[in-house]
Amino acid sequence: MIPKEILKKIRQIEIRSKRLVTESVAGAYHSVFKGQGMDFDEVREYQPGDDVRAIDWNVTARTNTPHIKKFVEERELTVMLLVDLSGSGRFGSVNQSKREVAAEIAAVLAFSAIRNNDKVGVLLFTDRVEKFIPPKKGRRHVLRVIREILFFEPQHRGTSMAEALRFLQRVTSRHSIAVVISDFLGSHVPEPGIMPRQSLLSRESFIHAALPALRQTNRRHDVVAIQIVDRFETELPALGILELEDAETGEVIELNTSVASLLSTFQKRQMEGFEETKRQLSSARIDSLLFRTDQDYGPVLAKFFETRERRRRHG
Description:
By secondary structure, the protein is of the alpha/beta class. The protein contains eight helices and twelve strands.
């Protein structure tokens, strides 16, 4: 029996997601994520102007009349949602954590998919694959997807996107839309003397570690990278001495946020991390989106679909 508060939360997300899908996303989704192949439809008699390369020579020989194979665009797609459930995803300084925003964005994409008769699957990961839900259709399946993203309790706190991508390639043979939803943060040991910290989360090291697997996956699938951040990951508040805990290693360090130069250095390094992540993904020909927990994600999604559709028309 699912507790009432969990059902209420899932229902709220369903309502918000369906509203956005109905108002602005569904049509754009259909245009942007078209089938990537062609399915055989029928054989018919050759007509002047038809492509001679489509002639079915077996039927032509059997009937003594030229026939061609007719194909239609493969419409049904599989959308795989790869959602990062590592410890840093629980952070949120406003009304929602990064994990809650991830669940809402996943819900919008999932409802758009089933509205277009596509399948949706989910892969939840930390530094290993925590849970895999095979692709299916239908509202009940999407509600289960939302529930798992919101409330599944992972066994680990670290992050390995490469491991999740390798798993995806093993279990998904046909072309799919692979949407990676993560904060693109991972613990690391930085160069000595840069900042007084040992293993706080970093984007630069994370994207460099994940990029080979992202590139390889993008050769077979259509990878879209969604990065979710919180405002206090870009700028620290000036609140004096703060204790910061690495959400993935548990290490605690102390920072004096009254020091203006430290705040400036922190913000500069974080912005460099965002730019490096975006640059590396672009170099791998992977579309990326950046969402903040304190901002409406609807306009960002709408702009993404608009840009991708414009590029598809002219590309």
